[in-house]
Structures are given as structure tokens and as C-alpha cells.
Design a protein that fits this description.
By secondary structure, this protein is of the alpha/beta class. It contains 16 helices and 35 strands.
Length: 546
């Protein structure tokens, strides 16, 4: 039998100069950090391989780990020949790589996570790329930047997005070179090279990444990082995630936080891999203290409860980071979790999502699917609703969730989720900057307001296109602590204001454009500003009894 279990150098010698390398990993979840580190060590010793182009499914690292550690060493050594470019959906957890891109040292490209996830499958099947409407009218549309992050990318266009018309309708075609190397990660490899993922926090696109490297016309090399070995045939066939014929070499990594942790801060926890279910009491979110954030989260929860009531069934949803993540705590406090199935873009259904650099992992989930399949739920509108954060909103309803001059975290999962959700609730505080806003029984008191307007004439980057959302027929709300707006054919319309808030002074004076204002603007419910729960379970139960 051909021995696939080798030392890192033996496997990595097959990575040639100029290789296009596909890398698995969602932050540190299933990231082959040991292989990445050893590949760079090999370069430092021999000068090869160099001029590499990396395609990441999300973000293979966190600050000081994985690919970010490589970026840090490149900057410290002022040696930039190792990488020529990267396609990374989210740069937020690899700040050193982001710096190399921002300073135009290497090519930089940014596509949505869901597009990259599907791209691996398309390339593996021999198709030219991903054909989709996701990104039309946004920063991914070639008319508005095409996902090119810096001038090197604009010059070389290693990855590109083309506008295509089919049957009189516009689409985008996302293209990038086929990988000839795949660096993936699993938990166990048997002697034949079958890979299982029983201790990993998510399945991600590991199988598709391996397939993309092995596809014609150039059958490349797949190298798998694992933490343990097993006898050939001892892994149950149903537990094999990447079959042996797709794997060329297996490298056993040290089980350390830097090289093979389940998440950034957790080395191993069987509740994260779904091997055991945690006690129910450990999953219950703590009750949020009454605050501006809770008011916003409650208003979104009210919208979700109303959606359950109108549809007469449980709903499937996605929550973004920030205030939208607080909605899960309100759902738990109101006792309506059985009516709202949550998802995390990395693949889990249900449970409680981890936050910060551990985001992507969950505890207590009831199912987990490959990441491309989860994004099918988003892009196809299989989910019923999503709540996402915002940094800027303009008069056309365009949304920028994260980009500012000198700040380039990447779009992440936002564009596909926002594109597909039929009911979309953007949630965030009305202004930014230093502020003091208090919530008392039934009212909102603005003692000191933020000086930074989030409702601007024109967003810095269009990541969600308001006009395209209107064309699709999405129901779109913008929920803040003092006002609720809806997106219509004529742009943004003010539909609710908080009790005792002055529309002219506290809302319009803090916006760079004037929204449409109907004759009778409703007041936000006083229950949102109260210590007591809102009895959303009764709202749902009464509707379901009818």
C-alpha cells in the first residue's frame, strides 16, 4: 500500500512555485494551520515555494495564527516573495494579510463566502465559475469594483467578475484560476488516507476543496492535516468525509491551540463537535439588561414573532454579528425558541453560536451541513428571514456593513444572506461615536448623541443594493433604538419613532438625507422600553390557535 502518512516536508515538496492553493478554514475551525506554518518554514529555508496565490473559503486564521502568522513574519522580515496574492472573503481575523493587501504588496480580492463556497464545487465539476445574481449593483459588480481590493488586483485580475446577460437578465460570473494544491484539515486519517471530521466544529467546504484540486485539466495535490491516525478500514464509511482517492498525503499535527484547536480559544470540547449535547441550562442565554441594544433586539424579535404568526409555522433565520446576535437572547427570554430555527453560515442548525474569534462554532445544534449547502439556504431564499448589522445606510437603501477608508474586513457572509432573505431586518444604533442614551420605563432619553451619522447620502461601499432588493420584492426594515424605517420603491420611509423622541431634532437632523415621512408616523411600542418581557409567546400562540 502506498504510504500517505508522511512528514510535512515530504508532502509540501510537491507545492511548486506559482501554485494556486485552496485552503480550508473558518477562522481557526478546520484551518490547517500546521501545514500553512510548515509551508512558510520551507520557503524560509530554501526560497521555495514562492509566488503563491491562496484561495480561502473564509479566513484561514486569527491574529497571530494560521495565515495571519505568515503575514506577520513576511512583514517583519520584509520578504514578500512567498505570496503574490489572496482571495479571502473575510480579512477581519487576518490583519497582517489585510495590511499586505492594503499596502499593495500582494494582490487582494474579496468575494462573499457563499460565492467562494459554491465556486469550489463549480470548478471541481469542470465549470468556469459561479453564475449568480448575488452582487448585482454592489461592490462585486464589475461596474462598481468587481471585488478588486487594490491596484495590483486591478492590474493583474487573477480573479475577476464579469457581467453576463442571459435571456435578457443580468448575472455575474465569478472566475478564478483552478487550484492545483489543496490544504485541508480533518480529525482522523486511516492508513489508506480516508479522512473523518468528528472533532471539527464544522464541515465547511473541505470535500469540495479537495475535489477542486483533483479536477481536470491539471490533477493537483491534496494534503490533509489531522491530529490522529487509525487502522485502514476502521473509520465507519458514513463518517468518512474526504475519501482516500482524493487525498495524496496526510500529515499529523500537534494538537495545540496554534496548530489544531477546534476554535481560536478552545482546544477541544465535544459539545462543539456535536458529539454530546450540553445540558439545556448551559444553553440558555442570560437575560439582557435593559439598554439601547436590547430595545433594538426586541424590535427585531417582535418582527420575527409576527412573521411566525402570519405564516402559521416555525421559521428559519440567520443572525449576523453584533446587535442581531442579541436577538437570540430576547428569543430565549420570551420563550419562543421552538418557533425560530437559527442557522450559522458555517453549517450548524440550531443551538447557541459562539462569538468573536470563535464565531462559526455552535453548541447544542441539531444538524450540521457543508457550508455551500448552508449558503444555498440563504441565496435561494429557503430561509424566511435574516437580521444583519449595518454601518451605513443611504437614501436608496444601500447598505455598507463594515467598509471605511483604511478599514477592509471583507464582506464575509453578508452579501449572500442579504441577497436571499425574503424578510430582511437590518439592526443597529442610529448614530456612532461617543454617546449616552438611556432607556427608562417606557421611554428613550438621548442625553448625548453620537456625532457620526450612519444614515448617509451615499455609502462608502455598496454591499447590499437597495434597488435590487426592491426589485426582488424583499421586505426590508432598518431597526434602530429611536426609529424604524422601511425600504420602498421611493427609497427609505420613516414608519415608527420611539416615544418622546423629536423627529426633527433627534432623527432628521442626524441624517444626511430626508426620508419619506407619512402623515401619521406610528410610535414604537412602549413594551420595547420596559423591564418586563413582551409576551411574544402569547402573540404567536393566539395566532396559531386561529
Amino acid at each position: 500500500m502506498f504510504n500517505k502518512v508522511v512528514e510535512p516536508d515530504e508532502a509540501l515538496q510537491y507545492v511548486r512555485d506559482g501554485s494556486v492553493i485552496a485552503v480550508s478554514g473558518f477562522n481557526m475551525i478546520a484551518t490547517p494551520a500546521y501545514l500553512i506554518s510548515k509551508l512558510y518554514d520551507r520557503y524560509l529555508v530554501s526560497g521555495h515555494p514562492k509566488n503563491l496565490f491562496i484561495i480561502a473559503e473564509t479566513c484561514p486564521g486569527t491574529p497571530g495564527k494560521g495565515l495571519d502568522l505568515v503575514g506577520k513574519k513576511m512583514i517583519e522580515g520584509k520578504d514578500y516573495d512567498f505570496l503574490r496574492g489572496v482571495l479571502i472573503p473575510f480579512y477581519g481575523w487576518v490583519p497582517n494579510i489585510a495590511k499586505l493587501v492594503e499596502e499593495n504588496v500582494i494582490e487582494g480580492y474579496n468575494w462573499p463566502i457563499g460565492i467562494v463556497s459554491h465556486w469550489f464545487r463549480e470548478v471541481a465539476a469542470g465549470r468556469p465559475g459561479v453564475l449568480t445574481k448575488v452582487g448585482l449593483g454592489s461592490m462585486f459588480d464589475p461596474r462598481y469594483g468587481g471585488g478588486l481590493v487594490n491596484s495590483l488586483a486591478e492590474e493583474r485580475r487573477t480573479c475577476r467578475v464579469d457581467l453576463i446577460t442571459l435571456g435578457g437578465e443580468e448575472y455575474l460570473m465569478y472566475r478564478c484560476p483552478k487550484p492545483n494544491v489543496a490544504l485541508i484539515r480533518g480529525t482522523t486519517a486511516d492508513e489508506a488516507g480516508n479522512i473523518s471530521m468528528e472533532h471539527e466544529g464544522a464541515l465547511l467546504n473541505t470535500l469540495a476543496i479537495a475535489q477542486s484540486a483533483k479536477a481536470c485539466p491539471e490533477k493537483g495535490v491534496t494534503i490533509a492535516q489531522v491530529k490522529r491516525l487509525a487502522r485502514a478500514g476502521s473509520i465507519s464509511p458514513r463518517n468518512v468525509h474526504v475519501p482516500a482517492p482524493l487525498v495524496d498525503y496526510v500529515v499529523v499535527a500537534p494538537e495545540t491551540p496554534d496548530f489544531h484547536g477546534q476554535t481560536d480559544s478552545i482546544l477541544y470540547d465535544p459539545t462543539i463537535s456535536g458529539e454530546i449535547m450540553p445540558p439545556e441550562k448551559t444553553l440558555k442565554s442570560s437575560v439582557l439588561q435593559l439598554s439601547v441594544r436590547k430595545v433594538i433586539a426586541r424590535r427585531v424579535a417582535l418582527e420575527l414573532a409576527s412573521l411566525v404568526a402570519s405564516l402559521g409555522r416555525p421559521i428559519l433565520v440567520n443572525f449576523g454579528i453584533g446587535i442581531p446576535a442579541d436577538v437570540t437572547s430576547v428569543i430565549a427570554e420570551e420563550g419562543i425558541g421552538e418557533f425560530i430555527y437559527t442557522t450559522v453560515e458555517s453549517g450548524p442548525f440550531g443551538g447557541v453560536a459562539l462569538t468573536g474569534s470563535d464565531f462559526g462554532a455552535s453548541r447544542g445544534y441539531f444538524a450540521v451541513v457543508p457550508m455551500a449547502d448552508m449558503f444555498t439556504n440563504y441565496e435561494g431564499g429557503i430561509i424566511d428571514a435574516a437580521s444583519l448589522g449595518f454601518m451605513q445606510v443611504d437614501e436608496s437603501g444601500n447598505v455598507n456593513p463594515a467598509f471605511l477608508p483604511g478599514r477592509m474586513p471583507g464582506a464575509g457572509g453578508f452579501p449572500v444572506i442579504a441577497f436571499g432573505a425574503p424578510n430582511l431586518y437590518f439592526a443597529g444604533e442610529f448614530t456612532a461615536g461617543e454617546r449616552r442614551i438611556e432607556v427608562s420605563e417606557g421611554t428613550l432619553k438621548i442625553i448625548k448623541d453620537g456625532k457620526v451619522s450612519k444614515f448617509v447620502k451615499k455609502v462608502y461601499k455598496i454591499v447590499y443594493s437597495g434597488s435590487y432588493g426592491v426589485k426582488k420584492g424583499q421586505k426590508v426594515l432598518f431597526v434602530t433604538e429611536r426609529a424604524v424605517f422601511k425600504l420602498g420603491d421611493d427609497g427609505i420611509e420613516l414608519v415608527e419613532v420611539a416615544p418622546e423622541v423629536d423627529i426633527e431634532k433627534d432623527i432628521l437632523a442626524k441624517m444626511e438625507f430626508k426620508p419619506r415621512i407619512p402623515n401619521n408616523v406610528a410610535y414604537m411600542s412602549k413594551e420595547l422600553f420596559s423591564e418586563k418581557p413582551m409576551n411574544l409567546r402569547n402573540l404567536i400562540s393566539e395566532a396559531l390557535r386561529k
